[in-house]
Amino acid sequence: MIKQFDIREYGAEDGGQALCTKAIQSAIAEAGACGGEVYVPAGVYLTGALFLESNMSLYLAEGAVLLGIDSEDEYPVVSGRVAGIEMDWPAAVINVRNAFNVRISGPGTIDGQGEYWWKKYWGDDHRGGMRKRYEKKGLRWAVDYDCFRVRNVIVLNSENISLEEFVSRRSGFWNVHLCYSKNVTVRGIRICDNSGPSTDGIDIDSCNCVLIEGCQISCNDDNICVKSGRDADGLKVAKICKNVTIQNCTLFEGEGITLGSETSGGICNIRIINNSFIGTRNGFRIKSARTRGGVIENITVENLNMLDVAHPFLFQLNWYPKYSCCEIPTDYEGEIPKYWQALVETVPDGRGIPCVKDITVRRVTAVLQETYVGESEAFLIEGLKESPFKNLVFEDISIQAGAFGRITAVSNFTFHGVQYKV
């Protein structure tokens, strides 16, 4: 029988006022030493960064809340990868680093108190903050890296990890980040209340053998995203993201299921099946840039149901140049961080052009309710002249949208049983 360690026995106090980080970390240390389970009972427990150990589990009971404190001092800066660049960044609320055989489960909640971090990025009115200051300086590409924000969960360099049932809400940055890890299952979690910038649901970053199943996700960016590094840094690291299955998920507000834009290490063997989209801005999305490079291949997308989705299919290989193309203004004065140097490093000729091939999409239905308001476009597929999409197959597709859209730079494109109606 697995030994259980109740955090209250180590001094954790309910109420969300007393900082419980040390108490909970003490319970983690004991559980890790004997393969036990840390038990978080009903109540609100204020905490900074927690670091789980190998061969242990963390259980969040019904009504339990791990409340991330909105104090930057409580999240030590640690090495890792953020938005495709290897750099130092604040630890998450829950950290699984260099570990194996770890499980996080239960119906309780991880609450990142994201409003503090969101205001830091874009101010009280969503049009100010660091974002506005950086855009004035011609540094749109840098603000996401300089504005250190805390994730709810990070799994880094780890193996045999299971995340099940819990709720992740109000994350300061990405909700769940899986990076450089193998054999990871994310099943039945719910991600919600994420109105802040870059509050991705689940990011799968240069991992191998990942199953995302039965999750419900609402956020303000990509609901689920598959990544593999950015530009020169990502090409050097060269870690592919492969063998990923995303199935039986329900996606609400957000940008849908995305491959990219961080594609430098390559993305292959991805299965996206039996998913529902309700009010997402996009359905299935591929994005990259002329500086990214990497090969995206062997992608299977089947049995998708979309309701009130503005862009069912959005593929762009020259996505968002203001963010994707990094250049330090000639009149810039100040320190240049090491990770800025990585971002502006020149990609060797030819290596920055991404290659996307062997994509099969079948059995997709997209409809709009009479109450739907806003633009809608069935297809926006924009390859590069020097690197068109290759071997795209669309079969048994039925889409209702305000416009058909456009398709450019595609080589060997099969349309079979595709219906479009206004």
From TrEMBL:
Q: Which domain of life is it from?
A: Bacteria
Q: Which GO terms describe its molecular function?
A: lyase activity; polygalacturonase activity
* Sorted UniProt keywords: Glycosidase, Hydrolase, Lyase
**Listed InterPro entries:** GH28_Enzymes, Glyco_hydro_28, PbH1, Pectin_lyas_fold, Pectin_lyase_fold/virulence
Record-linked SMART domains:
PbH1
Q: Does the keyword Isomerase apply?
A: no
- Biological processes, Gene Ontology terms: carbohydrate metabolic process
Spell out the family assignment given in the record's similarity comment.
Belongs to the glycosyl hydrolase 28 family.
PANTHER family xrefs: PECTIN LYASE-RELATED, PLASMIN AND FIBRONECTIN-BINDING PROTEIN A
Q: What is this protein called?
A: Pectate lyase-like protein
User: What is the scientific name of the source organism?
Assistant: Hungatella effluvii
